[in-house]
Specification:
This protein has about 280 residues and is an alpha/beta fold. It contains ten helices and ten strands. The chain has helices at about 1-15, 55-65, 75-85, 145, 150-160, 165-175, 180-190, 195-215, 225-245, 265-275; strands at about 25-30, 35, 40, 55, 70, 95-100, 100-110, 110, 220-225, 255-260. The strands form three sheets. Strands 8-7-6-9-10 form a five-stranded mixed β-sheet. A three-stranded antiparallel β-sheet has the order 2-3-4, with no helix packed on it. Strand 9, helix 9 (about 225-245) and strand 10 form a beta-alpha-beta unit.
Length: about 280
């Protein structure tokens, strides 16, 4: 992983006419449980072939010859939206990013909340005891219903049971190895029943999970991002907004629910913002 990142960074530096060692620092947003002080990433299960912990900061820093700062990918994307994107008007918010998995980031009283280092794992908030099995191995997590990886597994089961779907036809036609967000969007446009069922199920799960977080913390805003959220856009956000309202303790005071403004660059921008921050700035 560090070798691939080094190659990309060196190519970008070459294009900019600078040397990597001239950089003030390199910010990295990684999936999984991040220990910023130790510089390690643990349990990034949605990355192929991942197991255990990896000393990313020391490995990448040694290859680059530049300082490396580490944060969770969704946490840093949420901070970017808070500081530069859709979350700018608010002091408390949750970022919910739906892609291969489902991640979350929290801003409380204007600061990123890390808890003991792993706060914001929204995708593993349990919404149904004994429910669908999540890629993490547990049952009933939001990600078991709204993560694209889990949605693909369910789609394969449904097709194997004889239900017709254009999902895998579109996937093959587009040369994809997995059901991407774009594949789901195209299948929805064709009113595919399997795709519609899975996205509706994801919406219900997200609605219940978001409402639970809002009921606990009384947040001002919810920012929806990630590949699936961005690809399906405002119609997806509106569906989640409607689904969450029925679970809110104060339905007459719902939080603002907005699509992420920074798009696919949110994570990269948030990682760059890590450079030059001290632990107090990162909410630790």
């Amino acid at each position: 992983m560090a070798q691939a990142m080094t190659a990309v960074l060196q190519a970008a530096a070459d294009d900019a006419g600078i040397d990597v060692t001239d950089l003030v620092g390199v910010g990295v947003g990684s999936p999984g449980a991040v220990d910023a002080d130790a510089g390690t990433v643990t349990g990034a299960g949605n990355l192929p072939g991942w197991s255990g912990s990896y000393p990313l900061v020391s490995e990448l820093g040694g290859m680059l010859g530049a300082p490396v700062v580490l944060g969770n990918d969704v946490t840093v994307a949420t901070e970017a939206e808070f500081r530069l994107g859709a979350g700018r008007p608010y002091r408390s918010m949750i970022g919910v990013f739906c892609g291969t998995g489902v991640g979350g980031g929290l801003i409380l009283d204007g600061k990123t909340w890390l808890g003991r280092g792993a706060a914001g794992e929204f995708g593993h908030l349990v919404i149904k005891v004994g429910g669908a099995q999540c890629p993490c191995g547990r049952r009933g997590c939001v990600e078991a219903y709204a993560g694209r990886g889990a949605m693909e597994l369910q789609a394969r089961r449904m097709v194997d049971q004889g239900q017709h779907s254009v999902l895998f036809e579109i996937m093959q036609r587009k040369g994809r190895a997995r059901l991407s967000s774009g594949v789901f969007a195209r299948a929805l446009d064709q009113q595919d029943r399997v795709a519609t069922f899975l996205v509706d199920r994801a919406v219900r799960a997200l609605g219940a999970g978001i409402a639970s977080a809002v009921n606990l913390l009384d947040l001002e805003a919810v920012i929806i991002g990630g590949g699936l959220g961005l690809r399906l856009g405002e119609r997806f956000v509106e569906s989640v907004r409607t689904a969450s309202r029925r679970h809110l303790f104060q339905p007459d005071r719902p939080p603002a629910m907005l699509l992420a403004e920074l798009g696919d660059l949110g994570g990269a921008i948030g990682a760059a913002l890590l450079v030059g921050q001290g632990p107090q700035d990162r909410g630790a």
